[in-house]
Amino acid sequence: MASVSRTALFGKIHKVLKKYHKPVSPPAERTVLEHLLFACVLEDARYEPAEEAFAALRHTFYDWNEVRVTSISELSEIMSAVPDPRAAANRIKRVLHSLFEELYSFDLEDKRKNNLGPTVKWLEKMDGTTKFVVAYVVQSALGGHSIPVDAGTLAALRVLDLLTDKELAAGEVPGMERAVSKSKGVEFGSLVHQLGADYLANPFSPQVREILLAIDPEASGRFPQRRPPRSEPSPAAEVASPPPVTTGRKKKTKAAVIEPAVADSNTDETKPAEAKKVVGSASTKAAESASKSSASEKQHDKPPKAEKTEKVEKHSHHAEKPEITEKHEKLSPEASNTLSASDGLGKRKPR
Questions:
Q1: How does 78-103 read in b/e, with b if 16+ C-beta sit within 10 Å?
Q2: Of the four listed, 116, 183, 304, 307, which is most buried by Cβ atoms within 10 Å?
Q3: Do 133 and 213 share a structural domain?
Q4: Which DSSP category does 111 fall into?
């Protein structure tokens, strides 16, 4: 798109947006720090919920140092009016930490007197600031000409074909400050921010679509498309679908399942043979059990004769000792004398 048409299109955007939105001017009594922190809350949000969240932040805490040491979860609960309170709380905490570590205070009024270029570079290096925050502070607090744009504004301008995909990723709108004069910068910035906030909240809103088509009638082909609903397969398609291909393993399992049915479907000629096998196996088992029972009966039922012979042998074994004693008793007197003499050989007579 040529530069003349771009300038004309920015002028058309300003005229159309004034029909749908009211321009918002920043309060003049706010300090530089308050403009900085309000920009952290206003990014990707509408003006009314941003003002509500910022007022709740100021009335809940004693000073900004207390906000600095408060957790992000607690800050996000207080600023629940904005669409993304956690992101806003994260930006505020990071900005306050970087200011306290560098200046040990939260007074930024001397930045109004400094040159704009070094101040802008200082803001860009600060932890927690974004391009939207820096541009808002430059426009609202420092008197510079910079139009703040956030994610919603960039997406809406992309639908109007004012940006390329590369410029959208970089977060820049080339030629916007040249197309819009400084005297109209605050008003144009507030109007285009409201369009971006509405687009970010609901890009399929009828009012947003109406505004964009009023600016550029050819923008209808650049609107985001809704996801098409999933089409459920019809019953006819399910019937016409081919059967699933089975692997070799599944075929084997099917064959194993079919085998019992094949065995049952045999003729009656095979059944007598199987019955004979069963009867033969049963008879062999019965014979083995009968032989085991007879052997056990033989072991337990011993004949009485064997018991008597065992008793006689025991008595004969014990009767041998009395015979020896009887032999000693029947010795002759001569033998007893010899025994006594032999017993006395080893003994000494007393002196």
A1: bbebbbebebbbbbbbbbbeebeeee
A2: 116
A3: no
A4: G
> Can you tell me the distance from the alpha carbon of 160 to that of 146, in angstroms, rounded to the nearest whole number?
21
Give yes or no: residues 47 and 94 share one domain.
yes
Whether 63 and 3 share a structural domain: no
pLDDT by residue for the chain (351 residues), tens digit each?
444 478 889 999 999 999 999 999 999 999 999 999 999 999 999 999 999 999 999 999 999 999 999 999 999 999 999 999 999 999 999 999 999 999 999 999 999 999 999 999 999 999 999 999 999 999 999 999 999 999 999 999 999 999 899 999 999 898 899 999 999 999 999 999 999 999 999 999 999 999 999 999 998 888 888 765 565 555 544 445 555 555 545 444 444 444 444 444 444 444 444 444 444 444 555 555 555 555 454 444 444 444 444 444 444 444 444 444 444 444 444 544 444 444 444 444 444
How many domains does the chain fold into?
2
Which residue segment(s) compose the domain that 215 sits in? 1-26+147-223
Q: Do the domain assignments include residue 233?
A: no
